[in-house]
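Record type: monomer structure entry
Structure origin: computed from sequence
Chain ID: A
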Amino acid sequence: MRVVFLGLLTEEPKVNKMMNMKFVTLVVGPLETNCYLVYCPSTNECLIIDPGAEPEKIIRTIKENNWQPVGIVNTHGHIDHVGGNLDVKSKFDVPLYIHQADLALLQQAHKGELSFFLQARPSPPPDITLEDGQEIIFGQTKLTVIHTPGHTPGSVSLFGDGLLFSGDTLFNGGVGRTDLPGGDWSALRQSIKEKILVLPEETTVLPGHGPMTTVGREKSDNPFIL
């Protein structure tokens, strides 16, 4: 598998090119969640990561590019990452993936105060539960699941050939909150140190919010994990 580097995230989608894997970033909703559309240019098969809001924008981008969705992956169960699940899944009839440990969060996400603010709808149940080390294969590409609990019990990151979709575990200069239900500061630090910082320093980190970073940059400069 080959991947691409991403420039600074903006409201408009940016297509990134390298060899076999490509992706587009959409910033969706008032909490500016990064929804990633990862696709194989050889087959046009597409994986949708964290459709948290504005499902119409996500659906429109996929249709305009003639991609063929094969799955929806939630990096965790918070409403700003799952709020568009129902509409996107209803449109494309593809399996929904989330880690088993976040099933309760997924089921209750729409009951919080943020649900109305984000115009989110209740998520359907997952079709497939994720496990550490599992490979999600689409077209001629794949991403490997890394279970990174801490922000939530079932938080996962997705790694493929130099690229890490980190959800809300690790940010550019920051880390995920642990003061919400299910958060665990010790688990978060352990996940970052033992599962993310051990990756090659040149690994590009694409978080659930905000701009990209690298493992090396966070390893040397992130004040929350020094």
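Annotation 1: DSSP finds seven helices and 15 strands in the chain.
Annotation 2: The helical segments are 55-64, 79-82, 85-92, 103-108, 114-117, 185-196, 215-221.
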